[in-house]
Amino acid sequence: MVQRRPTLTTRGVIALCAIPVSAAAGALLGAEEFVLVSFALVVLLASGMVQSASRAGRARGNWRIEVGVATSDAEVGSELDVTVTLAAAGQGGATPVWLEDPEHCWERVHRGARAPEPRRRRTPNPSTVLRIAHLESGATMEVRFSAPTERRGVFTLRGMQLWCFDTFGLVARPVAVGPSATITVHPVPLVVELGEELLRGERDTEDGRPVTPLTHPRRDSFGDFSGIRAYVPGDRLRLLYWPALARSGELMVRDFEDSGPHRVHVVADVRALIGEAGSESVLATVAAVGLQVLAQGSVVELSTTAGERVAIGPGPLGAIALLRAIASLEIPQAQVLPRWRGRRPATAMPPKREAELPPTAGTPLVVTTAEGMRALPGAYGFAHVVVAP
Length: 389
Fold this sequence. Notes:
The protein is α+β, with helices and mostly antiparallel strands. Helix content is 24%, strand content 25%.
């Protein structure tokens, strides 16, 4: 719903502040010119209220705003255009209107109790918005803008407005409000070389004992028969293929495809001590690792040192679901302690706790930076560590 109340532009605010200053200067200095200036500003503001109301009355209800985005998912640093389509009806196209700059209409969406970032909406001003040309009834006009892809996150375009101004640009009134649009900006995956067995992970069982996925997994007689392979210490003797032993003298066993689901637990180190740039590098590496895990047909169990956790399975939408989940992750902000002068207060700071390792059915794969690796908590002593570039 469009609000009907008027809004002073930047010029209007300056004119309003100049009225009492000019009147006071004229009274103190005895100069009638300053008093006449203040009176002229009052007349301009009053006429601006009337003129903007008249223009908004003719245009309101005769304009339609549509917002289109080529894709709702983009990588950091990529180019993504937002198309705004304006359509006029009746006499609305003959009324001069201005389109608000969408740069100040984007908001970053946060999860949890974190306070939202303040909107960077400025006071409407004819010199900072786009003038829409005269449109015939039923005609349309397209305007293209760039979406904010400079950093990772989920961004929403809210309340893009169409304005009417008076002749001097002192008073503005809203005419129409466009719909919202949401985009997800995920990091560019930083590929790291990992072994296939590590990426495949462990079979999802209820046994929570840490295992090393670098060794060849012992397979039992379940799943479909896949072929004959060399014997590995730990294989059951009943799986030995005796005809091969008679022909070649080597121990061979029957191999079966593991039909049970596999799971890889990936931990993203986003502690404040590695900084924002380090955390972003970690998340970019996690994206690459997660995509490789999904390509192996395994489930990605992603958790962060900040306590967030999500599990994503393979499938047609697994990759995009993983990237969207990484884009929405929050990075803890470093807390700046106040500098106390003199005696410190009696309340002591609580002791810093180590990052807790969520329970998992396999050995976790921790992604951190070189600085973070030197300060890993003891709970990650048996984890496989991947250092983000």
